[in-house]
Amino acid sequence: MTQSQETTSKTAAPAAKGHRHGAATALLEAAIEPVCADMGYEALLIEWSGSGQRRVLRVFLDSPKGVTIADCTRMGRLIGNSLDAAEAAVEAGEGNPALAALLAPGYTLEVSSPGVDRPLAKKRHFTAQVGGRVKLKTWESPAAADADERSFNGRLVAVHDDDAAPEDQRRGTVVVHDPERDRTIPIPLPLIRRANLVWEG
Fold first, then answer.
1. Angle (CA) 3 5 7, round 5°
2. For residue range 69-86, what is the model confidence (pLDDT) as tens digits?
3. Residue 13 burial (C-beta neighbours within 10 Å; 0-12, 13-18, 19+)
């Protein structure tokens, strides 16, 4: 592993990719979030980009006190050491083999602050930003959108629980009003590939 820190149509294919992404994210969150919480940070977003030996694992940190470059550097070392230990544990016959397999091809770790285009990943993140402008990309088209439409910009007007799992931060629905087309679109959280707050300063 190399490591760096920075401040800064409904088809089976996208649905399957979204499911695999969600499973990988869950493995990483289980390993990384406790490390961050112990140090007083929230892992706001954990995401992969790239492929093969060029994969990048990005962790966006948040804290009531803010996040500095020094914070990112320190937490990058702690998170990297924790993930290395998780791989070593599997080699010793312990730990989570699925996590080790996910990390084995190699990756670059980047730890960043949220920035002005704050990422939104969990239901509580969206709830805290109701009234703000957002941009979203989805794995597939929501039922209320046009066929093959997967990019959305507008104002976040509501967030609803999933009645079957109201406590699950990965389930629920966000409602976005698009002023350009004068339409309101409900988007299930599991369909969201990436979401960011749009800075209006």
1. 165
2. 999 999 999 999 999 999
3. exposed
